[in-house]
Amino acid sequence: AQTVTQSQPEMSVQEAETVTLSCTYDTSESNYYLFWYKQPPSRQMILVIRQEAYKQQNATENRFSVNFQKAAKSFSLKISDSQLGDTAMYFCAFMKHGGKSTFGDGTTLTVKP
Amino acid sequence: GAGVSQTPSNKVTEKGKYVELRCDPISGHTALYWYRQSLGQGPEFLIYFQGTGAADDSGLPNDRFFAVRPEGSVSTLKIQRTERGDSAVYLCASSLRGRGGRNNEQFFGPGTRLTVL
What DSSP designation does A113 have? Predict the structure, then answer.
């Protein structure tokens, strides 16, 4: 079975600063996908960024980037130039090739003006 | 509708009653997922459909939970003899394809908040 651990229940960052959210996972699968999702207080989950495990290059999406360390089973999210709208709960998720997903318990991020 | 929709948005029921929760995926999405999210936790996988068939139902907690997707589009999650511990937000997601590749991004609905009194 897969497990996903987010060790930071809460974090805060000043507007325009950079913050990194941690995620580690455990799996025996060799082919899988990793995701970061954002869930604002309105509760609709939105994909932030995805990473295919077979790709060595770290994924980037505008202000969002990941540090994927496959051997260490680590998948952290870096948010640059933080904005007030980034305030939300962030979930790290693992998807095995067959489609089943496992989510961490989330990190609540607060961006302060 | 461009997104995943779920009805009802809120459901209050009494212990022991039967409930049905509905999910309308994005048109053309072959994969559909159900999750349960308790307060302060991440979504917990329940079941995954590829087309009409349940490709993985290993997350269903017991035989009181059942889900169908008869025509490969709309899905219904059915809970019999509800218990207070079933109270949670039930999330549905769909993706163009369920397996590997670029098309496995999941699009989530707003959820149904189930309260069992």
Answer: -
**1.20.1560.10, 2.60.40.10, 3.40.1280.10, 3.40.50.300: which CATH number matches B5-99?**
2.60.40.10
Measured between CA atoms, the residue of chain A closest to residue B107 is A46
Residues B13-34: tens digit of each pLDDT: 999 999 999 999 999 999 999 9
- The token pair at A107 is 């990190």
Cα distance between residue B117 and residue B112, in whole Å? 16
At B62, phi and psi to the nearest 5?
-165, 180
pLDDT band at B117 (very low <50, low <70, confident <90, very high): very high
- Probe site for chain A from B108, B112, B113 (most A CB atoms < 10 A): B108
Helix (H, G, I), strand (E, B) or coil at B70: coil
**Can you tell me the mean pLDDT for B64-73?**
95
